[in-house]
Amino acid sequence: MQHDPLTAQKQAVPHEFDRVARRYDLLTGCNPGYKKHLRWSAERMQLAPTPDTEILDLCCGTGLSTEALVKTYPRARIVGLDASAGMLAVAAKKPWARDVRFVCGDAMDPAASGLAGPFDGILMAYGIRNMPDPDLCLARLLQLLRPGGTICFHEYSVRDSLRSRMIWNAVALGIIIPAGLLTSPGSDIYRYLRASVNDFDGVAAFEVRLAHAGFTNTRSQTMDGWQSGIVHSFLARRPA
Ligand SMILES: C[S@@+](CC[C@H](N)C(=O)[O-])C[C@H]1O[C@@H](n2cnc3c(N)ncnc32)[C@H](O)[C@@H]1O
Fold first, then answer.
1. Domains and CATH numbers, the chain
2. Distance 239 CA to ligand 1 centre (A)
3. Which of 51, 52, 158, 212 is deepest in the core (most CB within 10 A)?
4. Residue 151: beta bridge partners?
């Protein structure tokens, strides 16, 4: 099957993250609001704060999104999945205060890695944009959720607004790509980041995509700071 260049790059994304894993937290640490906004997405999921609550952190990377979940739902059982062994190695070294599990696998098919659910909540932070077939991914994620369960896609989306596109491209070209070149000179991942965000669905189109996949109660909320209108929590439910 022939793929366009961006789709081909998506398949190489976990390998590219292996190369930047050691510097990832340093770079995101320079991004004001990065951790706070992950926390907002975790809170917006409004899951039950009980020991029975099971949450999947898809594309967990070095565990920054996992940390947001642990802080918001300290009694829940949480499993993080990522395809980059390098990112997972950084996550696994962190001093998790409680039983958090990490699994290496493909977010396109978590069940193939033994994560069959059902989960009360799924958080996918900066993940869905990188899926080679987002509709197939969404169809599988719907099946992994418990009926009535909540999913949150924490993601860039700039297509619907000229202002958002201009700010995103200024930040990417002026700060993110130069900082990425300084910290990880051999990697192309930050140029890919700019292109993939420009290419991703607008807010309205992604909400329609979620509805077509069978999710209900689809809604979105944005962040503050430079990420306002650029990073969003897309929330949806599996019908009860
Ligand atoms: C930008 S990082 C986000 C990490 C974390 N969620 C956070 O918010 O900091 C994206 C992560 O998605 C992972 N990823 C990309 N494609 C994947 C796939 N097909 N399966 C599993 N993980 C994938 C990468 O390895 C990387 O760790």
1. 5-237 (3.40.50.150)
2. 27
3. 158
4. 122, 236
